[in-house]
Automatic annotation (TrEMBL):
Swiss-Prot/TrEMBL keywords: Coiled coil, Transferase
Ranges in coiled-coil conformation: 269-296
Residue spans crossing the bilayer: none
All copies of domain Chorismate mutase, residue ranges: 263-354
Pfam family, any one: CM_2
Key word Membrane present: no
PANTHER family, sorted: PHOSPHO-2-DEHYDRO-3-DEOXYHEPTONATE ALDOLASE, PROTEIN AROA(G)
The name this protein goes by in its record: chorismate mutase
InterPro entries attached to this UniProt entry: Aldolase_TIM, Chorismate_II_sf, Class-I_DAHP_synthase, CM_dom_sf, CM_II_prokaryot, DAHP1/KDSA
Record keyword Coiled coil present: yes
EC number(s) stated in the UniProt entry for this protein: 5.4.99.5
Length: 359
């Protein structure tokens, strides 16, 4: 994917960040038009609405189907906004292109399925159109699968591509509906710096209150845009009501976001970065000292036929350090993951001592 073209051709490209907004699902022509009019009035240039909805369980609203495509046409004619929708099959692609939809996106359940991705890529190639396609991350945290989905489209001649980070499914209840696992989109950015990266705070958060902080976090990390669910009457939405905001609330959120300028020079950061370099060296020294002690402990355990793993000690360390970290204003989870990594290496080094016949 080394010859990507700009995602959008017209002047909307200059509007940084790229904002795509609209309801989770197109429900009725009235709901679509009412939402679109308000969004357009507030300056939104790209409208989204789901026409076909892949639902986790049967029985929910599965989308209005092709009928809704005419409403998108109407949105475009009346407001001048570009329109976008999700496609998951060859038939969806054909119907959306036929109706003049401007931007397509691939959902998280579809990007996780290479057969579906290939079918969509083939349908796009056969159509010969030059349309921007955004690919949401697969539901599972698999960067290679995400890249694979993008590559299938690129190989089919689609070079106006973008990626959407919508978080990753996990078992159990969490603050987020889908865990952000920011390191995954950040790694995608590192591997493909020219690939536009959008964030979908509605699906990550799953709650209205999380849309603003997640949007800001995404911009702070250099994302190029946001795709946000907005509905004229969110409490009555037929799908995802908890995470949709009214166009006015969306407007408020967008106006309070602090935009980051990635073109500013980093000279003033040099001194601060030197300090970070020094601190990282100190961290390495301290870690190395800790490992030396751990190897001594390993030697003792070997001589006294004790097992390497000492769960009680490990738990005590985790708890006390996580508490200390929290007292210092760091996240306890962060400290626990650092300690888990240190512990793994410490155990590995002790096992090395156990297996070393020369000691
Ligand atoms: C260092 C030890 O061995 C292991 C490694 C630990 C660590 O690195 O903190 C803690 C407990 C053990 O599972 C120990 O027993 O103290």
């Amino acid at each position: 994917m080394n010859e990507l073209k700009p995602l959008l051709k017209d002047e909307t490209e200059k509007l940084q960040p790229i904002i795509i907004a609209g309801p989770c699902s197109a429900e009725t022509e009235e709901q679509v038009m009412a939402t679109a009019r308000e969004l357009a009035k507030n300056g939104v240039k790209i409208f989204r609405a789901g026409i076909w909805k892949p639902r986790t369980k049967p029985g929910g609203f599965e989308g209005i189907g092709v009928e809704g495509l005419q409403w998108l046409k109407h949105v475009k004619e009346e407001t001048g906004m570009l329109t976008s929708t999700e496609v998951a099959t060859k038939q969806h692609v054909e119907a959306a292109l036929e109706a003049g939809v401007d931007i397509l996106w691939i959902g998280a359940r579809t990007s996780a399925n290479p057969f579906a991705m290939q079918e969509i890529a083939d349908a796009l190639k056969a159509s010969g159109v030059d349309i921007p396609v955004l690919v949401k991350n697969p539901v599972n945290p698999d960067l290679e699968l995400w890249i694979g989905a993008l590559q299938r489209l690129y190989n089919a001649g689609i070079n106006r591509l973008g990626a959407i980070h919508r978080g990753f499914s996990s078992y159990g209840k969490h603050l987020y509906r889908n865990l952000p696992q920011w390191h995954i989109p950040i790694e995608l950015r590192r591997r493909f710096p020219d690939l536009p990266l959008l964030c979908d705070p509605s699906h990550i958060g799953g709650k209205r209150e999380l849309v603003a902080p997640l949007s800001q976090q995404a911009l702070d990390m250099g994302f190029d845009g946001l795709i946000i669910e907005s509905h004229c009457d969110p409490d009555c939405a037929w799908s995802d009501k908890a995470q949709q905001v009214t166009p006015d609330v969306l407007n408020f959120i967008l106006n309070t976001l602090v935009l980051r300028d990635s073109t500013v020079t980093t000279e003033s950061l040099t001194l601060l970065r030197q300090q970070i370099d020094e601190l990282d060296n100190e961290l390495l020294e301290v870690l190395n000292k800790r490992m030396r002690i751990s190897r001594e402990i390993g030697q003792y355990k070997k001589e006294h036929r004790m097992p390497v793993l000492q769960i009680g000690r490990h738990d005590e360390i985790m708890q006390s350090r996580a508490k200390l970290a929290e007292d210092m204003g760091m996240s306890g989870d962060f400290m626990r993951s650092v300690l888990a990594a240190i512990h793994e290496e410490s155990v590995r080094q002790q096992i090395e001592i156990f297996n070393d016949r020369t000691h």
